[in-house]
Amino acid sequence: MSRRSSLTLRISTLVWIALLGMGLLASPSAVSAAEDLQIEITKKGLGKEVVITQGAREWFMLIEVTPENSVVLRQEKEQDRYLVDESETHDRPMTAGEVDAAIADYVNSVKTRATKK
User: Fold this and answer.
1) Is 80 helix (H, G, I), strand (E, B) or coil?
2) Running DSSP on this structure, what letter comes out for residue 56?
3) Which residues pair with 60 in a beta bridge?
4) Which of 46, 48, 53, 61 is surrounded by the most beta carbons within 10 Å?
5) Mapping DSSP to helix (H, G, I), strand (E, B) and coil, where does residue 81 land?
6) What whole-number distance in Å separates Cα of residue 110 and Cα of residue 103?
7) 57-76 in b/e burial notation, b at 16+ Cβ within 10 A?
8) Could you tell me the strand order of the sheet in which 81-90 lies?
9) How far is the CA of 24 from the CAs of 27, 29, 34, 96, 115, in angstroms?
10) DSSP-assigned beta bridge partners for residue 65
11) Rg (Cα) of the chain, in Å, rounded?
């Protein structure tokens, strides 16, 4: 093995060890809780639907947009027991940007709550 390839091997090994060490410094509970979340976002007409699961827990949000109004449905359940089941109706259609922002806010709030537990 040449000197150059030996040096390259040593440097890449040191870099790998450093990266591994940095990864281990991250909080394992917060990282694993966020990684356990399965997030599915589906376009539904002019609105969207998001389903987030983590083990026996499930979070659901549907935004249905019609020319007259918008309906936002939120549900949270653990196994077969609903913890949250609420809806709200807006007297105007939400724009695509508003739908995306609402979905992003919901996903971020679920991620935050899931990592705290």
Assistant:
1) coil
2) T
3) 51, 75
4) 61
5) strand
6) 11
7) bbbbbbbbbeeeebebebbb
8) 38-44, 47-54, 57-65, 70-78, 81-90
9) 8, 11, 16, 40, 17
10) 70
11) 22
Q: At a CB cut-off of 8 Å and minimum separation 6, what does 26 contact?
A: none
CA dihedral sign, ordered 65, 71, 76, 80: negative
- The amino acid sitting at 74 is R
Joined together, the tokens standing for residue 42 give 């589906």
**Residue 32: helix, strand or coil by DSSP?**
helix
Of 64, 24, 57, 23, whose CA–CA distance to 38 is shortest? 57
Q: What tens digit of pLDDT does each residue of 48-87 get?
A: 999 999 999 999 999 999 999 999 999 999 999 999 999 9
Q: Is the whole model's pTM more than 0.85, yes or no? A: no
